User: What shape does this take?
Amino acid sequence: MRTRTGVATALSLLALIVSITLATFFVAMPTASAARQVASPNEETLRAYCKAHYGVTANVKLVEPTAYGWACEKPDKTLVGIDMHAVCAESNHPTPDVIDWFDEGAYANWAHAWGCVQLLHTTKQGIRLDLNEACRKFGNKDGAVLRGVGRQTVADWMCKDGDRESGIQLRPACEIMYGRGNWEDLVFPRFNYWDPYSITCWS
Assistant: This one.
């Protein structure tokens, strides 16, 4: 009887230890992030991309001092805007679901403020950014206006409030429309710099 009681007590204690160990393990496990940073190409990578797509004498050129102001200069000197999504996907192959994103907080070096992330899961895919509503939420009663002539870009959008106009920061605009996230639930804009109507928000 004592032996059975001892065995039962030992088994109960062992079960308690296992339970505590498993509970500690599962609590300590990190939760999955919505995105993780992967290799972000530099200027040399962009040059290689241009040569691969437009010939060995093609080059890369910074047309506008922004993260998406890079273009490929073809052998005939014509400029073609670079698809940063394609650059990220190609340079990180075969890693799946790699896209580009732009850190608008890096004001001192906007031309190099873009990077690549791998989406581990998405909650909002490519929601079109309503710039008029975003500008109004920022306190600009007249919404958004597109300035510039000729070939307009994403950078030509302005918020308008009476006689006052101000530039639009796209990541805060996405956050004010669809919720502020942290790295585990990153909210960020994606767009073709050369198409002012291409802005979408992702998380």
In short: The helical segments are 2-28, 43-54, 84-91, 131-137, 170-178. Residues 23 and 29 are 10 Å apart (CA to CA). The first strand starts at residue 35 and ends at 38.
